[in-house]
Amino acid sequence: MSNTLPRPPTTWRNRYLLMRHGHSQANQQGLIISYPDNGLHAFGLSALGQAQLDEVVAGWSWPAPTHILHSDFRRTRETAERVARHFDLAMTPEPRLRERGFGSLERQADSHYPRVWALDAEDPQHGEYGVESVASVAARLQAVIDELEEAHRDATILLVSHGDPLQILLTALGGRALSQHRQQTPLMPASVTQVGR
């Protein structure tokens, strides 16, 4: 796989709201939690994250979603639940929106992230420490977008995911080299970025 993905269509069928989960217990503890064994049932939203979601939902300034898909990790599920409840919508778990796998760095201090990101800048296909490559993350999230573009028209689709995957997706959607994903403005917890129509 190359350092870029094919550019997205010039005409979008749908609007997408890319939402990073709220501040989590993993953030609070400074831990890398990237695998289902740890992330599906533990490390949900922190008290700060719950407050962030209350504030975001109360002051929602984006188009109202018509569909909600979310990573099935607890922190993203709890984030999606708050938005879904506000808009009285069903939500769909989508495993391809999961956190990037960080290999042997799992459950280690999040101070290890910059080491991986430095390697990403050299080679978006690297798998040092057993991490999931940037190219792989980009491909699985882009596949979600591609399928939604085929399945829907004029929809506003909220995708609730994680910091690294969303920054990588935004880099791909912008047609930039995947090795540059850390040059994308970091997404804050509970933030929403609109793309598409």
UniProtKB/TrEMBL annotation:
CDD domains named in the record: HP_PGM_like (cd07067)
Keyword S-adenosyl-L-methionine: no
InterPro entries linked: His_Pase_superF_clade-1, His_PPase_superfam
EC id: 3.1.3.-
GO MF, one annotated term: hydrolase activity
Domain of life: Bacteria
SUPFAM superfamilies reported in the protein's UniProt record: Phosphoglycerate mutase-like (SSF53254)
Coiled coil: 131-158
Keywords noted in UniProt: Coiled coil, Hydrolase
Name this polypeptide is given: Histidine phosphatase family protein
